Amino acid sequence: MEKINFQGAGTFTLAVHSTDDDAEAATALHFSAGMGYLKWNTGKGVETADFALIGNAAAVQTALRTITGWQAVTVTTSETDFTKPHTFTVTFPVGYDDGGQVPVTAAYPSSVYTRGGTKASSATVSVVDQRFSNSLWMGEISGWHEFTVSGSGTVFTGAGSKPKAENGDTYEFSTVEYGIASAGTTVAHTITTKCVVSGQASIAAIPCIASIANAADGKAYGRIDYTADRPTQTSQQTEDYFAVGAAIEVMTTTWADGALGTDVPTTTNEHRKFTVLSHVKNGHGKMFAKLDSSPETDSSTDYTLRVTSNNGTTTAFKTVNIVAGVNEVQNIRVTDGKIFAPVLAQTFRLYINKGKWNEEFTEVLTHGSTNAQIAEAINSFAALSGPVKVTNHFHGFDTTEASVTSTMVVTFDAIDGDVPLLHAESVGTLTGTLSTSTITHGSSISGGAGARFEHMEAGGTINITSQETVTFTLPSGGAGNVVVFSYDGIMQSGAAVALSADIADDAGIDTALTTILDDNNVEVVAAAVGDVVGTFTASSNTVVVTLQKGLSGSKLEMHVLSGGTHTSTTKTVNRNNNGKTFRIKRVGHENVALASADNVFSATAFTIAREDYNFRVGDEIAITGCTAGTAADAPCGKNEPCLNKISAFASSQGSTVVTIPTIVVTDDAGCAATLIRDTLILDSIPDAMNGAVDIAYTAPSGSCSVAEVTKGSSESATCSNRGSCDGGSGLCVCHEGYSGEACETQTVLV
């Protein structure tokens, strides 16, 4: 595997630096006075080591060795002038387990620690990089890294020609040394720019969409922004690849870059086998897999690993745009090139489970059959449990029943879930092309390229966290009410809300919700009005509240204090799958290139000179390859990935206008569009929705069953003591004469 690193002895980089902008050019004697400290929890309490900011490596090492268990740490540096910014590398002895702990460091204020004189106000001490002992990590950098910056402030080249980046990676850059402001936190965006890589892939010079200010001296400090929803295009988080409990075996050969068929001997850690104990993150968000023994430290080898696990890896996906489908929707069409063009007198049959033992087919139908006739024919299939509905509405456009412009759209009952694709077969003469296609899979969730569903597998599970929407509908005359809110039995402490006129978001309702406080005076529903959406519409007498992700709408109540009619107020909660867990039955992948000859981009819209693509509101279109002379005139400013969510259609015969509100374009030269849709077929029916959610994905895992054969005798017996567990598949291999998932059944007498 590429980007694999092994770490034996734990190490961290301790920086004595300034919080000033362009601080690497700090004035002479900036650190000639003042004291710094490092705190560490030894397991028996927190111990502190103090050292002078001007101290050399030997002085800092002496100070750190006063911490219990640190008697053998080493401190090194290449610096010689300690009156200017400088760093130390602190290394634990091999075998010392740092426990995934991050040291706490800072400089004492002169008012607290006066020894050594008054320090510069901006002088501080920070851990700017850390790699944990006995671990495996991925990528090329694990904390802050020094970069040089182009004159335009948009191209960053890392020291040592690393890291290499991919389009869509998100970095954080700062002209303050190591991005640490005086409060010890990352500085504001005025001097730290979120960089989304664009323009090239796998290069050391990182091109950013936005430029960074104040980089006049050509220097900056950067790190991967692990607060982003998708920090890197290719995940570098170890938990996505190595489950806790997984066995990792280092193979004896790896590959040669540029010649994948050529074996290269592995000379470091070869034949070693490790077990993953846990996953930990350093202070910069980099994740490490802690191992059960100490490997040789190595970051230069492209390792080939064999990973064996009965446990599923877990991956967190944040702010994923999805479309959740309840009913299976299929399309029966005859096309003549790019438009629907059935000949009404021509005949055909429909099949389900075509070519299988349970194949069924209808009587002969015509393309002029009514919707009711088509529905009746499909309802005859024994494979279906519920009735179907047939219409002619496609992309919101009525193609007209039993007409020469018609297409048939079949909606199956939700109880049937994921329905096998119907097969249409002509009987006799056929003009054009007869086909069927799936518009929406039943009991499914789908997403575009930004969702990263392509690596999910059947047998895995997903747990969804989303925003629930609560609607309170007052009876006629309820607009005069004065109301208050509660959540989980906790009443608001702020002023009541008068429903005398329309109330917009970020106004009275939101303010009231921020005053619901727990016993520790912590906001329960929202810390600020921007965290919740609450509105009142007088014309419909409805109060609508959209909660933060993870909160339960069933716990939110509205209470009428006084006013008009309210006795029959109703409450409706749209859960949007919040808190639901689904098992994946099947994964489907669609990647449809939209013929460039048929496409025309314009501001916030995309017109396709054909009507047969299976678009849906919420689907995602990727735009690539734009060659506009002026970047600002092209979609996404020519930056890639350029992923755009469809918000609406405006169709007519022979043409579909797709609304993409996030793009503005006046030059679409060279642009190519692709419909990307990955679909997860689920084991139960989700709530229909189109929006952003967080998803926790657990990959499929094998587990050898434990069966109790005789009460009290073998409750913990793997495979009932009648077989062995195959660690690769997680299945029991039963001894002769026994069968079953846990070898619990005796099949013959032995």
Give start-end ranges of low-pLDDT stretches.
Answer: 182-194, 704-716
Q: Roughly what percent helix? A: under 10%
How many domains? The number is 5
The number of E-state strands comes to 56
* Most strands sheet: 6 strands, antiparallel
Task: Explain what the structure shows.
The chain is an all-beta fold and 750 residues long. The protein folds into five domains: 1-139 and 236-311, no CATH class; 145-224; 328-441; 469-574, no CATH class; 702-750, Laminin, CATH 2.10.25. Helices cover 3% and strands 39% of the residues. The chain is built from three helices and 56 strands. It has a six-stranded antiparallel sheet with strand order 1-9-20-19-16-21, with no helix packed on it. It has a six-stranded antiparallel sheet with strand order 13-12-15-10-11-14, with no helix packed on it. The longest helix has 8 residues, at 57-64. 38% of the residues are buried. The model is unreliable at 182-194 and 704-716 (pLDDT under 50).
Topology of helices and strands:
Layout: E1 4-7, E2 11-18, E3 35-41, E4 46-52, H1 57-64, E5 74-76, E6 86-91, E7 104-107, E8 123-131, E9 135-138, E10 145-149, E11 155-158, E12 170-174, E13 192-196, E14 205-207, E15 219-224, E16 247-250, E17 253-256, E18 259-265, E19 273-281, E20 287-291, E21 305-308, E22 314-325, E23 329-336, E24 339-340, E25 347-352, E26 360-361, E27 365-366, H2 371-378, E28 389-391, E29 393-394, E30 397-398, E31 408-411, E32 423-427, E33 433-440, E34 444-447, E35 461-465, E36 469-473, E37 482-487, E38 490-491, E39 497-498, H3 508-513, E40 533-537, E41 542-546, E42 556-562, E43 570-574, E44 581-594, E45 599-602, E46 605-608, E47 620-624, E48 642-645, E49 648-652, E50 655-659, E51 672-682, E52 689-698, E53 723-726, E54 731-734, E55 738-739, E56 745-746
